[in-house]
Each structure stands twice: as C-alpha cells, then as structure tokens.
Amino acid sequence: MQHQPLVNNYRENRHESVNMEKEESNASKIGENGVEGKKKSGIFWPALLLVVIALARIGGGLFISIHGPTLLTLANNVGSTVGQVSWVFTGRSVGVLAGGIITGYIMRHVNNMLSFALNSFLLAAVIVATPWIEALWLLIIVVMAGGIGFGFLDAGMQALILQVWGEKDSRPIISGYHFAIALGAFLAPIIAQPFLSQQGEEGLCPEKPNNFLPTDNISTIAPDIWGTTAKDSTTWYSPIVWAYLICGVFMVVVGVIFLVLVCLKLEKHVRSSQTKIIETREEDKLKDVILLFSLVCVYYFFCVAGETAYNSYIYSVSICSGLQFSPGDGTTINALFWIGFGAGRLGGVVILKYFTPKQVLFVDFAGIIVSMIIVCIFGEQTAEVTWAITFFYSFFQATIYPAGVSWTSQYTNMSGNYIFIFSAGQAIGSMVLLPVGGLLFDIDPFNVMYLVLGCSCANALVFGLMLWEGKRLKRKRALENNQTKCTHSSRL
C-alpha cells in the first residue's frame, strides 16, 4: 500500500511525457507547414508583381512603337512633312523627362500601385486620342502628356525592382523588364499593318506638306501645318484609329489590374516576402557623383536616340529611300527590328546573369558599330543587307540599356531619387536628335542611317569615359575608407 502513490506518480508523469511529445510533434508539423506556406507566398507575390509590370511594359512598348509605322499617316492628318511631324517625338521626350524627374517624389508620397494605375489610364487616353487630332501643335501636346505617363511608369517600375531585388539580383530581372517593352513594340506594327493596308500605297512619301495623294480614307486638303486639316466629307475617320484603339484598350486593362493590386496590398506582401537585406547603401551626395551622372546621361542620350531613330524611321526610310519597299514590307521590317530587339533582351536575361555588364557592353558596341557601317555602305543598294542588319543591329542594341543600368548601380545607389538620370538621358536624346532625323529624312530618307551610325560611335566613346570615371570613384572611396580606419585606430 505504501508503494501505491509512487505508482500513481509514475503513471501521471508518463502521461504528461506522452502529451508533451504529441504537442512537440504537432508544433513541428505546424512549423514546417508555416515555412512551406511562407515559401509559397514568398514566390507568388513577387511573381505576380513581375507579371503585371511586364504587362505595363508591353503597353509602354505599344505607345512608343505605334508612332513609327503610322508616322506618314499622322503627317497627313495634320498636313505636314515627316520632318515637321517629327516634333511629336520631341514632345514625347519632354514628357518622358518630366515623368522621370517627378518619379522619386511621387513614389515617396503616393501608393506605387495606385500611381502606376493612374499613369496607365493617362497613357490609354493619349493613345486613343492621337489619330483623331488634326492640328500639329495639339498632337505634340497630347503625345507629351503620354510621355509623362510613360516616363513615370518606366522610371518608377525600374526603381521598384531595384529596391526589392537589389543591384546584383535584379540584373536578369531588369533585362527581362526591358524585354517586355520590346514585345509590345513588336506587336504595334503588326496591329497597325491591316489598317495601314486599307489606305493605299500612293502618295506616302511627300515632297511638300500637301503632296499626299488621295486615298479612300484620307483627306487631300492640307492647310497650314499648325492649323487643322479638313476631312473628306465621305469618310470621317482613318482606319488607323482602330489600331490605336486596340493599344489604348490594352492599357486600360493594365490600369484596372493595378487598381486590383492596390486592394490586395501587393507591394506590402512583396516587400515582406523578401527576407534578404537588399539595398543598404545610402545615396551619394550629388557633388560626389555629378561627373558620373553627367556621363551616364550622355550615354543614354546617344543610346536611346540611335535606337529610337532606327525603329521610328525604318518604316518610312524603307518606303521612301532607294529601297522602295511596299507598305507591307515596311511594316515587316519594322516588326523585324523588334524581333531582333526582343531576342537580344530575352538573351540578356541569361547573359547578364553570367557575365558582367562591362563584358556585355563591349560586345554590344562592337556589334552595333560594325552593323551600321555595313548598312551605310551597302544598305540602300542591297535590300537583303538592310533586312539582315536591321535584325543584328537591334539584337546588339537591345542590352545596351539594361546593362548600362546594372553597370551604373555597381557604383552608386540608383533605386531612389537618382533613378530619373536614365530617363533624363534618353528623353533629351530623343528630344534633340529625332527632329534632326526628320530634317535629314526630308533631304534624303537614307540619311537617318548615318545619324544612327554617329550615335553608335558616340555611345561607345562615352562608355569608355564612364569606365575611367568608375575607376576614379573606386580609388577615391578606397582612399577615404583607409583614412577612416587609420583615424579610428589612432583613437583606440
């Protein structure tokens, strides 16, 4: 009887031990499930963000590319020459610059997904309105407004990627980000082609502002280029409006998706799913990096000016130069540019993961300079050369922009206020050199190719200066770090 309490205590302890083991087992299972759930959510939210950003970039590609194959039609709508209507590109570039400059401020004060949605709607409205405008001054202003939306989306989404994934991990993402715009730009001439074919082939290359010959749907009346153009009483719109409408509706859909993401608090989920510390560098003082930023700005001045001149004018050049392409072939070679460009951007997703930006850029510059020399010598006489070089030039040109972003981010934090530097360079380049391209086109359409060659050579030269400045910054920072360590050691 004296041993009974001992037996009871043993049984109670044994029972408690078994219960504790069960609880630990359940807790372990819950912990494993929690980790698995976190991993799944950690993949889902960033992937969703990248998909929506890609859709917005495709829409941006539609906006910047649709003006190229429809440039002659827009010139006819406002009764101007190609050189005169090319001021539309200047207006667009001014807008892109303004949009890039205000990006940092808006991203600090407004929900990013909401600001992306509003700018998507702005871009949609501009795209839909463009083919209806009959006054050159109004067309320039409207396209400028679209440039603001595009510039903000371009700089803002790129800054968000750098903030979330950091400089190194974002390299393939940035390249994929720029691939998406190439996809949209490729689709634009494909969308426009059936509607362009309805306008006929005569009078596409005017010698004077009012030299457009009558077609079924386009007016022949062309008064002062800053005024309005009367429409034929039998038809009140050009069929090209349908191409613009398709592109505009796509951007409306993108804007609606961004609004849904605001409700889902997507950005909060994405940032919480990133467990790694991404960007800890403070932004450098402007006086310390002003020379680097100046060179980067000039780099993108020539990079985007050359690229945009080629894709904006290749349709018109192929039809109006000695090549004498049909509008169908002109649209096809415009699309071929974007096929090569997209292939280069897609390849860059992999290439920039295994090679440094500097290595990629050396190959790119060799490729574009050799390509443009060949097309300038043989292109106008041999159509096959122009077809081939259009692909190869765009392929090598494709990674110059994203590789430049990655290279610059190695030397300074570009995910905050300084993100507009890229937009500033590209906007000023398009603003200045695209109208120059239009003036050269009016003299001789193939002159545009010489302008692109000049941009390619200048771009390579500026990158050489950037390499020199990058090394200087590294030496300066290493010296400052050594001085700081010495001062700290002496105090100890």
Provide structural commentary:
- This protein has 492 residues and is mainly α.
- Helices cover 78% and strands 0% of the residues.
- The protein contains 17 helices and no strands.
- The protein has helices at residues 4-66, 71-78, 82-85, 87-101, 103-109, 112-129, 136-169, 171-196, 241-264, 266-273, 286-320, 327-354, 357-378, 383-397, 400-409, 420-443, 447-491.
- α8 (171-196) packs antiparallel against α9 (241-264) and α13 (357-378) runs antiparallel to α15.
- Mean pLDDT is 80; it is low at 27-39 and 208-234.
Task: Throw out a few tags for this protein.
mainly alpha; 492 residues; 17 helices; globular; single chain
Question: What's the gist of this structure?
Answer:
The protein is mainly alpha-helical. The chain has helices at 4-66, 71-78, 82-85, 87-101, 103-109, 112-129, 136-169, 171-196, 241-264, 266-273, 286-320, 327-354, 357-378, 383-397, 400-409, 420-443, 447-491. It is built from 17 helices and no strands.
Secondary-structure blueprint:
Elements: H1 4-66, H2 71-78, H3 82-85, H4 87-101, H5 103-109, H6 112-129, H7 136-169, H8 171-196, H9 241-264, H10 266-273, H11 286-320, H12 327-354, H13 357-378, H14 383-397, H15 400-409, H16 420-443, H17 447-491
Helix pairs in contact: 1-7, 1-8, 1-9, 1-10, 4-7, 4-16, 6-7, 6-9, 7-8, 8-9, 8-12, 8-15, 11-12, 11-15, 11-16, 11-17, 12-14, 13-14, 13-15, 13-17
Counting H and I runs of at least 4 residues, what is the number of helices? 17
Class inferred from helices and paired strands = mainly alpha
User: Overall 3D geometry?
Assistant: globular
User: End-to-end span in angstroms?
Assistant: 74 Å
Mean pLDDT: 80
Low-confidence stretches: 27-39, 208-234
